[in-house]
Amino acid sequence: MLIDLARDMIGLFVERLEVRTTDEAGREQFLRIERARDHKARKLVKFAGVDSVEQAEGLRSRGVWLRRAQVGPLEEGRWFVQDIVGIDVYTDEGEHLGTLAEVMHMPANDVYVVRGGGGEILLPVIEQVVLAVDVPNGRMVVHLMEGLR
Known about the structure:
Layout: E1 2-4, E2 18-22, E3 28-39, E4 42-47, H1 53-57, E5 63-65, H2 68-71, H3 81-84, E6 88-91, E7 96-104, E8 111-116, E9 119-124, E10 130-134, E11 139-142
Parallel strand pairs: 6-11
Antiparallel strand pairs: 1-4, 2-3, 2-5, 3-4, 6-7, 7-8, 8-9, 10-11
């Protein structure tokens, strides 16, 4: 089974690791990785007990989750999504735009969805836009490039 992963998460999927999967209805299933190998920008994974194509097809479109302890500390400038959703977002000129409501994972880069009194703003997660993230104080500072508002 092929798993699409964020580029920096590929190394986390290793043999014997147990992952939690969820389907669209939120039903959970725990699976242990029997074998894993790189395949282009993906990971080819064999789960214990999933021995046929039909069984693997039954896992299609499931979310795959790791416990924070399995990931370990993140490098500087990286955050867990659950730690930044809900923080206040300000421009580098001090204007409060709203709160970070959602993180969309896109092929080129993530996109932050900020909702506030002025509506919804989509911010590409690039260094020219996201200037500072202060998780303990619940604050993000961004630069609104032309066309982002």
